[in-house]
Each structure stands twice: as structure tokens, then as C-alpha cells.
């Protein structure tokens, strides 16, 4: 009799670990919250000493708190901390992975991108943020934000302070945050949960990090766009470029353009409509780029 070999299904490999990226996020969150409290305490102490505020005077303490919120240098220090911590954790996590660093953080080239894709992605990202900002102003929710007002104050600060904000808030923070959230965190979540859940999970963590009722949701939606770019192109290079350009443009507008809250409702209505159309157009155009193949999940070691 003729024998037939029966194919044996290969056993599935170990599922990628996700607890490591959540531990890294908790470490980042804890360091930044602690740093924020320390910086605020130092700034309050300096201003209280200058003004001779009585600690028992609640009215003076409230006025002092508002003055500290408007100081530019605490915001710049926190931006510097965010970039430093995010970059350090991304590189540490990448080094601990059994995968090569460039592959683990998705720093490889990905799919070939035409020149127009870079501009289209940048316009689309800025339009996402602008549409949500205009919506917040139109609904009156803009008054709830603290961090965005802090960025406006920092942008209006002395030239040296603004230069530090522009440098650490654009190329440094843009690169560091994308390496951590899209490169380190999202890559692992996508390997474990799939593209949709992975992108949403990383974007949610990114929004939570900002600890602001308005800035947090805005950054979450922007992160969804950046996360989709990373998955679609198979690389964080385009998201890094877009993030840097978006932050730099926002800081420059914050310094040289009137504050967002001063524009009339008609202007914000027009910005909301135009921005929404630009977002849709950008997504339609970018979808014409062939999607990157889904990465195979590698066997993970502890701390990877």
C-alpha cells in the first residue's frame, strides 16, 4: 500500500508579552507626575517668596496659583522631562528586546513613500488638531484646559525660553514620543491584539499622559492618526516627521498668532469645516499607498 504523510501543524509560538510596555508606561507616568509636582512646588515657592504671600491668605494663594500657571519656564521644564523620559524608556525597552533595536522600534524604512505623502500626512495631522481645537472653543470647553494655556504662555515667554520650548517640544519630544508610543508600545500591542486594538490602546495611553480634560482627548485623536500612519507604512519615520512638524507649527503659531480663544465663532466654524475636509482628503490620499505587510510576532523574552 502507498503511504501518505500527514502534515503536522506547527505549534504556535509564544504570544508577545504586553505587560512590559504597560510597566514602562506606568514608570513614565509616575516620573512625570512626580516631576510636575516638584516643578510646581518650586515655582510656587519662588513666587511666594518674591510676593511675600501669607500662607493663611486663601485669596492670595489662589492668585499665586494662577500666576504660577502662567509662568513659561515650568512648562518648558516639563516638556524637557517628557522628551528625556520617553526617549530613555523607548531605547531601554528596545535594547532589552531580542529583536534588533531598529526593528523593535519600527525605525526601518517601511513601504516606499512618494514625496507628496509626507506633506499630506503633515497637513492631515495638523487639521485633526485644529478641528478639535475649534470644536472646543465653539462649545466653550476650551476654558477647561490648563496645559494648552500653559503652552500659550510658554510660547509668549522670553526668546531664550521659547527657543528651548521649540527645540525640546518639537524635534526632541516629537521623536521621543513616537519612538515610545508608536515604536515601542504600539508595535507590541499590534503584535498581540491586532492593528485596530493596538492603535487604540497606544493612543489611549498617549492621551492619558497629558492629564488634561481638553488636551488629553485632542492628543488621543491625533495619536489615532499617527498610529494609523505607523501601521499603514510599517515604520515610525513618517509619524516622527509629522509629529515634529505639527508641534513646531503649533508653537510658532502660539507665539506669533493671536490666541485661539480670541478668534470669533465664525472663524472657528470655518476652520472646523475646512479642517474636517482636509482630514478626510488626507486619509483618502494616504490610503492609495500600498499597506505595509503585517509583522510576524517574534518570541519575546522577559523585559522585551
Automatic annotation (TrEMBL):
Residues 162-248 form the CAAX prenyl protease 2/Lysostaphin resistance protein A-like domain. The chain crosses the membrane at residues 21-43, 73-94, 115-142, 162-181, 193-209, 215-231, 238-257, 263-286. It comes from the Bacteria. The keyword Transmembrane applies. One of its GO terms (molecular function) is metallopeptidase activity. Pfam families: Rce1-like. Keywords: Hydrolase, Membrane, Metalloprotease, Protease, Transmembrane, Transmembrane helix. The keyword Transmembrane applies. This is CPBP family intramembrane metalloprotease.
